[in-house]
Amino acid sequence: MTRREFVRYLVLASGGFAAGNVGVALWASLRSVNEGEPRAVVELDRVPQGTAHLFSYPTGAEPAILVHLPGGELRAFSQKCTHLGCVVYYEPGTGEMECPCHEGHFDAATGAVISGPPQRPLGRIDVEVRDGTVWALAARGEGEHR
What is this structure's pTM? Predict the structure, then answer.
């Protein structure tokens, strides 16, 4: 194999890898979000203000987190960090959720990125209280907030 053939092979292989990465990124960004069906999550009195409750939504395989903010508001998000998919946790008293993998921090009220490597907010889950029970209504995509 000559040097010219070797360089041509490297250029073609690099182009193929680049095209594959672009294709995967486009597929991930364009796929639809499974909004899910309304489902009871937890009795409200089991989640005191300033704490969180872990659940799965919209399917049983997708981790989610319900945060009962100190002011009484309820917020729910996908528990998957938007950086590399690690699980985020609520840090009581800070108003933040943290990803322990790469120290990403998200605002517990909005899901917005505060610091760290994540570039996108957490996916939001609409919730409401019905007769003392918190219900998950629909999952929103990252940054798709109502």
Answer: 0.74
Domain boundaries, the chain: 1-31, 39-142
The answer for residues whose C-beta is within 8 angstroms of residue 140's C-beta and 6 or more apart is 33, 35, 123, 124, 125, 126, 146
Question: Which of these CATH numbers, 3.30.160.40, 2.102.10.10, 2.60.40.1510, 3.30.70.120, describes 39-142?
Answer: 2.102.10.10
Residue 42: beta bridge partners? 134
At 26-63, the pLDDT tens digits run: 555 544 455 778 999 999 999 999 999 999 998 888 99
* DSSP secondary structure letters along 59-115: STTSEEEEEE-TTS-EEEEESB-TTT-PBPEEETTTTEEEETTTTEEEETTT--EEE
Whole-number CA gyration radius for the chain: 20
Amino acid at 22: V
Partners of 113 in the β-ladder: 106
CB-neighbour burial class of residue 109 (10 A; exposed 0-12, middle 13-18, buried 19+)? middle
| Residue pLDDT, tens place only, 62-90 | 999 999 999 999 999 999 999 999 999 99
